[in-house]
Fold this sequence. Notes:
With 466 residues, this protein is α/β, with parallel strands linked by helices. The protein contains 16 helices and 14 strands. The strands form 5 sheets. The protein has a 5-stranded mixed beta sheet, sandwiched between helices. Strand 3 (118-121), helix 5 and strand 4 (138-141) form a beta-alpha-beta unit. Helix 8 packs across helix 9. It is globular. The protein binds ligand F0G. Ligand F0G binds at residues 51, 53, 100-102, 125, 127-128, 183, 187, 216, 218, 256, 258, 267.
Amino acid sequence: MQRRSWAEPFKIKVVEHLRMTTRAERERAIAGAGYNTFLLPSRDVYIDLLTDSGTSAMSDRQWAGMMMGDEAYAGSENFYHLESAVREFYGYRHLIPTHQGRGAEHILSKCCIKPGDSVPGNMYFTTTRAHQELAGGQFVDVIIDEAHDPASLHPFKGDVDLGKLSALIGRVGPARIPYLALHATVNMAGGQPISMANAREVSALCRRHGIRIFMDATRAVENCWFIREREPGYADRPLADILRELCSYTDGCTMSGKKDCLVNIGGFLAVNDDALAEQARNLVVLFEGLHTYGGLAGRDMEAMAIGIAESVSYDHMHARIGQVQYLAGLLEREGVPMVRPVGGHGVFLDARAFLPQLPREQFPAQALAAALYVDSGVRAMERGAVSAGRDPQTGENRYPRLELVRLTIPRRVYTQAHMDVTAESVAGLYQQRGRIVGLRFTYEPESLRFFQARFAPVEGDAVLRR
Ligand code: F0G
């Protein structure tokens, strides 16, 4: 068969120069950053795969939209554009803009959660769970077991386990469950999608018990691409239709616009319920800004409205996830252990299999991310025990089964050659994995510790021995 490559449905108009560094410079930089890639100045980074959040390249149309910013304090024209984009593509009635996703999570948690409530979700996300706990709730994981197994090839590893959800409802009663947080796709599981069939069943179960569902729609369009690829009956449907159907099984969403919506800043809460919308508008003015801007400039809302329409293009999403799969394919050929099947927004290396010699207490994923930076200037992110933090009740470290390093691909930013360089560095490290040294905390912040924690190698003064 003749080979047909995928390619991006855009060409490059502006370039941003990158600084190349030497290994000695990177060794100094990572030590200065306490072996935490979050603390590296970006000027010292060559290929930045820390996150896909706020790192997308905007289109010329979005930049043109920025010039159309209506910076009125109240009732900005751009708010109405964003409101109609959210209504058209996500289908929710009320839009409350926020400065980013966690602003929406904060407001939703404060509106709905009472102390002692249980909040089920298909795996935790760091900021989402932190706001649930801050409001007095307890997060309960109801994702299927396959999600915790990096080797399971289940096509929808993000699915909710209906048995686990029913058991929770039986144990605490529906009155103590303010809502189910449904993540599409599931970031901490490796960008794994939920199936439409599962969303439908979960919705029926929750409606029977009067429990609301709020979707974390941060990467829901990416989820819809997987539904189109993998779920019978969706192969010919436009992504926009699939998205509307997915949202129809839920009562609203929180959104970090910094991912799917292709903007550098922004987010929103969207809900159908009038009373909840009223309550949320009352809180947004306290924490974010007036309910028609929520901490955003008018131009930011305009860029997000345009980005939403661009995000549901099949060609865009095909190239976006195609690039992630291209990188995964290169690593797979070298036998590098990673979460499979590959998810939507990045390649998640399985640090426990990569570095079996390091005990969990030496944070193998944190060490691998630091070593990767030293080797090539590629910046990745730990998603394992450091991110999971401590149990608020016992104060013990939480050790999730997944101990991962995330190579997150910004949208429309890097080229295939950047992916080649990344794969060569990871594969090279895998061959010399015995040289990677474990880490211990030298400073541990109280909340969301992964952002600002500092470490030192458990022995010697290098995370990657020469
Ligand atoms: N929900 C999910 C699934 C996310 O991935 C994020 C952010 C948020 C909510 C919070 O949104 O950052 O706009 O406040 N994820 C980023 C990441 C930080 O790197 O995965 P935010």
